[in-house]
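Weekend entry, working from home. Most of the wet-lab plans are on hold until the incubator is repaired, so I used the time to fold the two sequences that have been sitting in the queue since the last round of cloning. Logging both here for the record. First:
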Amino acid sequence: MTSRHATASTRQLFSKVPEVTLYFWIIKVLCTTVGETAADYLNVSLNLGLTGTSVATGVLLVVALVLQFSASRYVPGRYWLTVTLVSVFGTLVTDNLTTSAGLPLEASTLIFGALLTLTFVVWYASERTLSIHSIFSVGRETFYWLAILFTFALGTATGDLMSEGLGLGYLLTGAIVAGLIAVMAVGWRLGLNSVLAFWFIYILTRPLGASIGDYLSQSPNEGGLGLGPTVTSLIFVAGILGIVVYLSLTKADVISGDGDRGGDEPMERGGAWQTAMVVGVVLVASGVGYTARVSALQADAAASVAAPVAGQPSAGGVRAPASPLGDLSSFRTITQDTLDMLGHGDQAGATTRIADLETEWDKAQARLKARDGAAWTEVDGKIDTVLRELRASSPNPSTETAALKNLVSALG
């Protein structure tokens, strides 16, 4: 007769996560894309606001984690629901730090990079492995989901920094990230430590999926295909459901040997020095690339200051611009249009028009911020206030008007 202790021990040896197959990476990218577009849909389309969306998603994530931890083995539906919600919540964590707390994307990237590194260090010190083939206990599963959360938050900050902060755009950012994923995959084929390769690719799929989501959902004026966050989210959710149903029926991603394992898989050699080498190369390359891009943006900003634009001093005695950011007349026009619509009682029209301001301001972020970071931050904060007021669940015309007038003044 099998003892109770033996039964519990055997039950513990069932892996709680899927095998890393092609299906794994396809669903991971789909979940990442849904995380980006769903956050936008809940925040903007349903007008829940950033705080409301964060609270709602956080509650759902807690429920999903309870279901995931209560399972005795890997269940596709529970696992991928949790990943999707972690993706949305991780996106919102970064967005809250950037929008609500005013933390620069550079700082968010460094903070989440440090937190992820700390998670891996403590995880390895406690369990002597970071392999996802060894998620058999509550402790290891806790480390696993904490690492997953930080990879999403780090990927969000990095992707936004590249596409918006450095002005590379969604398509180019996606291409760069896809190239890095290909390099890591080739490295793995040539002998790179599989655990190291897995976690690097896992981090990189976050900005890749976000770039795909933004490219599909954003309007053509923003360089996208214009499908919108609702349609894009529905397409990818349908894809996730289809693959999850297939995996539930076929068990194609269940780690073989569950229940027969007597311990962890053999450790690969070279993990420490390979990790140090890869992380070092990535940090140096990122630093050089970031410095070069910022220098190029600053040079472009300096050239635009020297050019004879409307509002600058010239031989004809043209008046100097009110803002150190230069000519902001296009943003002022949109803001004034919004104010006029609100004055005529057209709340829906004003809410729609202000979206144009958000789009154009985000597109110009890299160029304007390079000219004067402090001035850009000040105006950006006023724009965020206007967006919150106009997208509130119960808009207040008086506070909306005050915020718009304040922005008009700031824009010169």
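Second, folded right after the first finished:
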Amino acid sequence: MKEKILETLVADGAEDFEQFLHNNRNKVDIALNRILWYVILVGPAIALGILAGVFKRTSYSACVVISVSMLIWASVDKMILKRMPHSFVPGILALGGMELLICFMNCSHISIRLTWFLVPLLSLLFCDAKAYIGVSILNYIVMGISTWLEATHYAEIRTDFATPLGGFINIFAGCTIEALVMFAAGYALEKATNGYYRIMIGKYKEAQIQHEQVREQLQILESMSEIYDFVNLIDFTESTEMSLREKNLRKLVIKKGQDHTHMTQGLRGQIVPDMVDDFWAFTDITTVPKRLVNRRSIAGEFINIHTGWFRAQYIRVKGEMNRRPDVVIYTIQNIDSDKRKEEHLIRISMTDELTRLFNRRCYEEDIAEIEKKGLGENLALISADVNGLKTVNDKMGHAAGDELIIGAATCLLSAIGAYGNAYRTGGDEFMAIVHTSDCEAIVRDIQNRTAAWHGAMVKGVSISVGYASHADYPDATIAELETISDQRMYEDKDRYYQRSGKNRRQE
């Protein structure tokens, strides 16, 4: 995978370098053309030298020829540049014009030497070895022609040259050595420069990729910040925190010995008292890295006195899974509405639809919790059963039967009140888990309430009740207490049928 990425980067780098050369040619052509326009001023400059007596063997007419020639040359080069903006042609033409200028100046007895090597050095701006070699060869040829044309002049003014040919050989040999030295230096410079450009373009490409990755990560973080009420980026290596919800991102220093972030410190006073210690332990940043080892995230749910339930979460950003993370994101998200929905669903699943009492499932879970924690001294179970439900259903319909069940549930719930919870465990069967030392008082209250109840379809309701308390049966289990309360409830039911003279089997 890494090799494929590397190959892609190399290919992209090569393509980018070619694009760089393409764009660079246009810039160099423009710069060289601009130099040609400045070269027009060489004519007036030489004229000032003639006037000052510096150039004694040069004429004013040569100055005019230089300026006019360069004006024409620069104009032609400008037109070609417009037609061929990314070609070598305008640049090479401009360098050729400079070569001819130097040659003409040399033939006009204006002594120049190093200026010959300026033209090849200017060609290095193309960052192309072929262009440099071509211009260097052209420069060497023009320099040779110029030296040959001036050989007769040098033979006349110097006594060490017997003939013009001797003068040519002597001078051109020296120029050849200089040309070779300058060519080698320029070629090495071209290679080094191109290598440097390639490296820089490659790094620029990598920087672009990293910049794009960072930009995408920031977009993700910005999207996350819209979901959460607070989003903090915590860097454990730099000991800093930064809120991603702020428009002006600024880092806050986490001082040595500081065990909670600035955001957490601002929230502590808003947590309900019962949860403050748990919240403070969860948000202790000195333990967060250790708790995130081999984990993507850790979360805790707490209650804000102003906004309700919220979830605090630490999410790993950097670092291997089996090591402590270097950077984490700390988020706060309000989940109060979700909690309310969750509680509503739990309440529905634990509630009897008809009577709104707790259902058998809730009763069994509460009994299991009591078995787990142990029976309290004042714990008692109450069993209750509606009398005559079948008769009401058969004679008056199920709507009347439902009214009877609701009436029984209402009386039972009112009598139990704050003593405990009432449950509908079957069609006409009820249970209650209460905490009281006087079960008889509750049973009497149930009987009084049922005696006073009247419905729209049913005149009255009767409930058989039995109970068993842990105080009366200290060695009994919760299951045994339930059996005892049921037995006593059935005994009460038998007494009801005996008093009423009704046939229990018919009901």
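Plan for Monday: verify the second prediction. DSSP finds 16 helices and eleven strands in the chain.
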